[in-house]
Design brief:
Helix content is 47%, strand content 18%. The chain has helices at residues 45-59, 62-75, 79-90, 95-101, 106-109, 122-133, and strands spanning 3-8, 11-16, 19-24, 35-37, 40-42.
Length: 137
Amino acid sequence: MKENFILQKDTIHLEIDKIKFSFFYYPYELLKPLLKLDIIKIASLEDILCMKVLAIIQRGSKKDFVDAYFIMNEIKIKPQQLIEMFSKKYGKINSLIIHKALTFFEDADKELELKMIKKVSWNEIKNFFIENFRKFD
């Protein structure tokens, strides 16, 4: 078993057998209580989705689009519900910013394909966001 870790201010990055984990200090209120899994507590899917959308707004990484895609499909959330959750968590935001970020793929398109447990093509993920966020005003 190969392990690597990096310590930064308020963050720990850990890799075990090619699986990457990050642990953060998080200053924002949670939308839902933490979920307890054995000895660790994790944020709800709703909170993680909002974090992923914020990450997409800030940097547009392919992994964040992939994570947001799977979470949105898992919790069956509609675009307007996502905007409302995001605003509740981070404060009022012009929804156009979210729409533009979730349909801008130029940076993510340059990244390598990701290895995923559930096989979904990058084009399918992009089409999901285009269908859900380009037609919504």
